[in-house]
Amino acid sequence: MSDRGPGLLADPAAPTERWGGRKAQQYVRLTLEQYGSVCWLCGLPGATSADHIIPRSQGGAVYDLRNLGPAHKRCNESRGNRAASGPAAIIENGMQFFSLA
Ligand SMILES: [Zn+2]
Question: Among 75, 64, 74, which Cα is nearest to 98's?
Fold first, then answer.
């Protein structure tokens, strides 16, 4: 495999798109507008941030409302890159809640 070069294969080491800055703020706002402010991780209202349903580290889309759910900052941070558990896992497996239809 010494002939591997640019364009032949996707680079597995390519960094995932960065989440932050103005673009992320805009998507947080859109997520809260779209889904309301009930935290998808704990089920309580008052979410002020957006969490990636499929973590970025696992290839989840970074800027796609279908992969974002409202979340409290604290819930978001405590989840980290772990798969969701509890009520959120049902949503994660089904995705119906986040259907845009
Ligand atoms: Zn929460």
Answer: 64
